[in-house]
């Protein structure tokens, strides 16, 4: 329907409707969304991207503008149809006003051209667009071969990690001199009151076993257990009745410590040593900052 109220079959947009070459309504636009008219007369919203030769962005067919798809710039005319840019005076220009384009890659004459900021075609060259290199052939169009350059790799995500535990082994190490501790075979009955009476007086030295700064009969007083231990409960009870002591401990007792000089009796002790440190290996993605090439490295 045109402005005179008559039905128009001219190809192109007639108000909110697009008429194709056969005079049929192909698209409809309600102002916010573009639709395809099916053969059955139904309307179907167009998806973003290329739909035949029209480009849809945010639900609407783009018209009289430049659209970018898959890294390349395309021109769509007033009807939304894709048109190639033109090659003129060694430049890529818009087909609607012959103005030179800005930096980018453009579809023209059925080829793709990487050009600089004034649309200038550079033949048999390496063209940099946003720090990415493109190689051109004799007519200035994009070569299928990657540009000759030094890769500048940027580390990406780790795709796989393999962890290796540390490797160890048991070895015999000679001990220059050593002390042999002789412990009781059986549990002894120890009078803690007697042990407490051995508490060092002010100014006397003693060994702080647990590092709390306090001398106790159960910890620091263990060196005196052998002096106040009994083989049986009845022996301890007899002692307690005669002394009114009542605190006791039950443990194996260190009876003696025998010092062994190296010259007399050499000794070896088993210890664990690390032969290989724990480590991780991983696969990581890398992308070239210049050409965008990707590869995976084992690190």
UniProtKB/TrEMBL annotation:
Domain of life of the organism encoding this protein: Bacteria
Record-linked Gene3D superfamilies: Cholin Binding (2.10.270.10)
Protein name per the record: Cell wall-binding repeat protein
Native source organism of the sequence: Coprococcus hominis (ex Liu et al. 2022)
């Amino acid at each position: 329907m045109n402005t005179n109220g008559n039905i128009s079959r001219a190809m192109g947009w007639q108000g909110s409707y697009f008429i194709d070459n056969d005079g049929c309504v192909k698209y409809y636009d309600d102002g916010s969304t573009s639709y395809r008219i099916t053969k059955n007369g139904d309307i179907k919203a167009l998806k973003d991207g290329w739909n035949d030769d029209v480009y849809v962005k945010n639900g609407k067919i783009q018209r009289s503008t430049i659209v970018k798809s898959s890294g390349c710039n395309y021109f769509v005319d007033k009807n939304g149809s894709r048109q190639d840019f033109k090659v003129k005076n060694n430049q890529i220009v818009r087909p609607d006003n012959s103005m030179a384009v800005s930096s980018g890659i453009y579809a023209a004459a059925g080829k793709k051209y990487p050009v600089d900021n004034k649309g200038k075609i550079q033949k048999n060259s390496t063209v940099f667009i946003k720090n990415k290199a493109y190689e051109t052939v004799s007519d200035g169009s994009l070569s299928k071969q990657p540009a000759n350059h030094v890769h500048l790799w940027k580390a990406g995500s780790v795709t796989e990690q393999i962890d290796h535990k540390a490797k160890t082994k048991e070895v015999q190490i000679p001990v220059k001199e050593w002390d042999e501790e002789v412990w009781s075979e059986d549990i002894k009955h120890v009078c803690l009151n007697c042990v407490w009476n051995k508490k060092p007086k002010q100014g006397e030295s003693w060994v702080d076993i647990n590092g709390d700064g306090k001398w106790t009969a159960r910890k620091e007083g263990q060196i005196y257990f052998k002096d106040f231990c009994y083989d049986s409960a009845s022996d301890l009870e007899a002692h307690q009745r005669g002394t009114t002591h009542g605190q006791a401990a039950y443990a194996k007792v260190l009876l003696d410590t025998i010092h062994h000089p190296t010259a007399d009796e050499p000794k070896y002790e088993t210890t664990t040593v690390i032969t290989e440190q724990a480590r991780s290996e991983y696969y990581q993605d890398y992308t070239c900052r210049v050409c965008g090439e990707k590869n995976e490295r084992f690190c």
